[in-house]
Amino acid sequence: MILQIEIDAEALIEPLSEAAREAGEIALRYFRHGERTHANINHKAGGSPVTEADLLVDQFLEKRLREIVPDAAWLSEEIADSPARLGNPLVLIVDPIDGTRGFSNGDPQWAVSIGLVHEGRPIAGVVHAPAIDETYSAARGRGAHMNGAPIHASARASLQGATLSGPQGFVGSVRDAGADIVPFPKMASLAMRLVRIASGRIDAGLVGDKSFDWDIAAADLILNEAGGRLTNLDGNKPRYNGETPRHAALAAAPATFHAELVNAARRAKHLPPR
Predict the structure, then answer these.
(1) CA-to-CA distance for 154 and 53, rounded, in angstroms?
(2) What pLDDT, on the 0 to 100 scale, is given for residue 5?
(3) How many CB atoms lie within 10 A of CB 235?
C-alpha cells in the first residue's frame, strides 16, 4: 500500500531550522575553536570518528524531528538503520555533525544537516553551521537562503579559471587532465562544501565515491534551489532512501558549466565524454 502524504515543505523550514539550531547548541558544548574537543571519541568500523556529541545530537534530533514530521521514516549516520524506511516514501535523513573529524580538531566548518526526502528526492533541507552562525535552507521550488537572505551559485559561465573543491587527488587529476581550475582547500564537512557552492563562495566541487545520503541530501536541494546541480558522472541526480545509501563520485557546479565539469571529471577518470 502506497501512503498518500500531503507535505508543505516551505512551512517546515522554520521548525526544521529551529531544531537544527537547538542541536547545534548541544554540539557547541563540546566544541573548542582551534583546539581538540573535550568530548569522548570512539571510532566506527572503517576508522571514522564518532564523538559523544554526535550521539547526543542524533538522539535529540530523532525525538524533535519525529514530532515535526511524524509521517516520515528515519535515516541517520549514528542510529542503526531499519529496512522499514524502504516502504515509506517520506524519510528524514540526518547527519548530526557533518565533519566530525574537523569538529574534533577545532575546525569550525562543521554542520548539522537535516534533509526531508519524498520519493527519492529532497523537498526540504537545512544545513546549520553553529560555530560560524550560518544556516542554509531550501524548500523545493522556493529558492535557497542563508540566514534568511537568498543565495545563488556562481555566475561564472565556464569551468575555465573556476575554484574547485574536493578530494585532493580527484581535484588534482582533473587539473592534470587539462582543466584550468584553481584548487580550493577541501572542507571536513561535505555538506558545507556543497552549500558554499550554492552561495557562490566556491565555484564548483567534486565528491568522492564514499558519500552517503546523510552527507548530501539537504545540501543537494539547497544547491539545486540556488541554481546549481549535483549529479554523478553519468549526469544523473542522486536518489535517496535506497537500500544502500551510498553514492558514486559526484560533480557539483552551477548549471551553466555543470556539464563541462562532469566531462572534465570523466577525462580524469579515463571515461569517454558524455
Answers:
(1) 34
(2) 59
(3) 14
| Residue 41 cell numbers, joined | 571519541
Give the pLDDT of residue 1. Answer: 35
Does 245 have pLDDT greater than 90? yes
Domain locations in the chain as residue ranges: 9-150, 163-268
The DSSP result for the chain, as a single string, is --------HHHHHHHHHHHHHHHHHHHHTT--TTS--SS-EEE-TTS-EEEHHHHHHHHHHHHHHHHHSTT-EEEESSS---GGGGG-SEEEEEEEEETHHHHHTT-S--EEEEEEEETTEEEEEEEEEGGGTEEEEEETTS-EEETTEE-------SSTT-EEES-HHHHHHHHHTT---EEEPPPS-HHHHHHHHHTTSSSEEEE-TTEEHHHHHHHHHHHHHTTEEEEETTSPPP--S-SS-EE--EEEEETTTHHHHHHHHHHHTT----
Measuring CA to CA, how many Å separate 105 from each of 96, 108, 210, 216, 273? 17, 9, 21, 22, 40
**Rounded to whole angstroms, how far apart are CA atoms 108 and 244?**
30
Average pLDDT, the chain: 94
What is the end-to-end Cα distance of the chain in Å, rounded?
A: 39
Q: According to CATH, what is the number of the domain 163-268?
A: 3.40.190.80
| CATH class of residue range 9-150 | alpha beta
- Over range 90-96, report the average pLDDT: 97
Percent of the chain at pLDDT exceeding 90: 88
Equal fold, 9-150 vs 163-268 = no
